[in-house]
Automatic annotation (TrEMBL):
Keywords: Methyltransferase, Transferase. Gene3D superfamilies: 3.40.1280.10. This is tRNA/rRNA methyltransferase SpoU type domain-containing protein. InterPro entries: Alpha/beta_knot_MTases (IPR029028), rRNA_Methyltransferase (IPR051259), SpoU_MeTrfase (IPR001537), tRNA_m1G_MTases_N (IPR029026). The lineage of its organism: Bacteria, Bacillati, Actinomycetota, Actinomycetes, Micromonosporales. Transmembrane segments: none annotated.
Length: 137
């Protein structure tokens, strides 16, 4: 993920009162350092093993929602605001959410496309879903 994408997601998380969870890869730290334009400390959690972290969040009662094209995905306009702790999972712009993470989702949301593109930029898609989950859209 490009530093600008992480910076955009970090600003959106700040805007809706959410935190950003990222794997502890060096490129993530570098991208956050370049892309973070917030004037105050940001809420960023480093998660060692993303799959284990997702499973633990789910066991603890969090609702895990993936932004993914799937047969049972709900349209963004029909996604209700989060009523409990919710984790939004974003995948790679080209390959989506890895199959092993799909099994950890409680549901999926898709963003309808009218144009010729198959998907939005990951930061744009994540921002739209975060605003919807926060009840601000």
């Amino acid at each position: 993920m490009h530093g600008a994408n992480l910076g955009t997601l970090l600003r959106t998380c700040d805007a809706v009162g959410a935190c950003l969870a990222v794997p502890p890869f060096r490129w993530v730290d570098e991208a956050l350092a370049r892309g973070n334009t917030l004037r105050q400390p940001a809420c960023v959690h480093r998660v060692g093993d993303p799959l284990r972290w997702l499973a633990e969040e789910r066991r603890a009662g969090a609702n895990v929602i993936g932004v993914e094209l799937a047969d049972e995905a709900v349209r963004l306009a029909d996604l209700p605001a989060a009523r409990r702790r919710t984790v939004m999972v974003l995948g790679h712009e080209a390959t989506g959410i890895p199959p092993e993470a799909l099994d950890l989702l409680d549901g999926a949301v898709e963003i309808p496309m009218v144009g010729t593109g198959m998907s939005l930029n990951v930061a744009v898609a994540g921002s739209l879903v975060l605003y919807r989950l926060a009840g601000l859209l």
